[in-house]
Design a protein that fits this description.
This protein is mainly alpha-helical. It contains 15 helices and three strands. Strand 1 and strand 2 form a beta hairpin.
């Protein structure tokens, strides 16, 4: 009997964890990135419990602690205090901030909700009263309009990948797409001035391409070489130097490279910050309303989009100065 690599690798996880991850993927339709994040959090959680409950010796490396033999009886023994101990561990020994801890809380609540409501493995849900750490709302980090222009104008036109990299930065700055969305673009999904992409949660959405994006794509397509690209990846718009679909790490390096060349603080700017930039520029200079911006960015909840209503200090200054009592 033949086994796939994936099925063999799944044997390193508890059966209930595999069942939960399969449920997320097949029933809930969560994206591979989301499922991977849950897997990372739960793996850390179970390894912590093996230590916390004294089931492994102290000389075993954390990353090598086996968790595959964790069974339903072990799961039923988990209490709310164990969950809080794990969150404390992630803060003290893993230096997790509130965002990372909140994600772990969300993972645990989802996992135990599944065990209680769907799998019927536990009679009480220990995560029902688990509280998430308070997250202070922070204004997004973004490039100004002048900095955005500077970034594009200071690219090395003699670089062999100039047209590809220019296209990547242009799409980020104009469309506000996510890193994973950009990497997944297929040429055949571009129809006129529209682009269909698979966004967060495997949801398809349409992105409208402005003239700058269309020019950048056309210029790149004239030099895009797929002669050495495997057949199954020829549809990819962005091709790496290794003749494969470009990956996230490569795009992150491209952003670092060109923000540095533009004299910007490249420790601050990532692909996600360029997404913030596009949203901020549309809101500040394009008078885009918050509902339209929500659809452009693919936000499920309007509250996520509302961070962009707090970024324009100049508008606030003008509003205050418009008060008839200002003098």
């Amino acid at each position: 009997m033949k086994y796939s690599i994936k099925s063999i690798q799944n044997n390193i996880y508890p059966e209930v964890m595999n069942d939960f991850l399969n449920y997320l993927s097949t029933i809930k339709g969560k994206s591979p990135n989301t499922v991977r994040a849950y897997k990372v959090d739960l793996t850390m959680f179970f390894r912590f419990l093996m230590i916390y409950k004294g089931l492994v010796s102290n000389d075993v490396e954390f990353e090598k602690i086996p968790i595959n033999e964790i069974d339903k009886n072990f799961i039923r023994s988990i209490k709310l205090s164990d969950l809080y101990a794990f969150i404390a561990f992630s803060e003290e020994y893993r230096n997790n901030g509130n965002y990372a801890k909140a994600r772990k809380v969300a993972t645990l609540k989802s996992f135990f909700k599944y065990l209680f409501g769907k799998a019927k493995i536990i009679d009480e849900n220990p995560a029902a009263e688990l509280e998430s750490p308070k997250i202070d709302k922070r204004n997004p980090v973004y490039l100004t309009l002048d900095e955005s222009k500077k970034l594009l104008l200071n690219m090395d036109t003699s670089d062999k990948n100039y047209y590809r990299d220019y296209c990547i930065l242009t799409l980020f700055l104009n469309c506000g797409m996510r890193l994973s969305e950009l990497c997944s673009i297929d040429v055949n999904k571009i129809k006129g001035d529209t682009l269909s992409i698979i966004g967060k949660g495997n949801k398809e959405r349409t992105i409208y391409l402005n003239p700058a994006c269309l020019r950048a794509i056309d210029d790149y397509l004239t030099v895009r070489d797929t002669s050495k690209v495997p057949e199954e990846e020829k549809a990819a718009l962005f091709i790496s130097s290794k003749n494969r679909r470009i990956n996230k790490r490569s795009v992150e390096r491209i952003v670092k490279k060109y923000t540095y060349m533009a004299g910007l603080d490249n420790s601050k700017y990532t692909p996600h910050k360029l997404r913030h930039t596009a949203a901020t520029l549309m809101y500040k200079h394009g008078n885009v309303d918050i509902r339209s911006l929500q659809k452009i960015l693919g936000h499920e909840n309007i509250s996520t989009t509302q961070i962009y209503t707090h970024v324009d200090d100049e508008r606030l200054r003008e509003a205050v100065n418009s008060n008839p009592l200002k003098d």
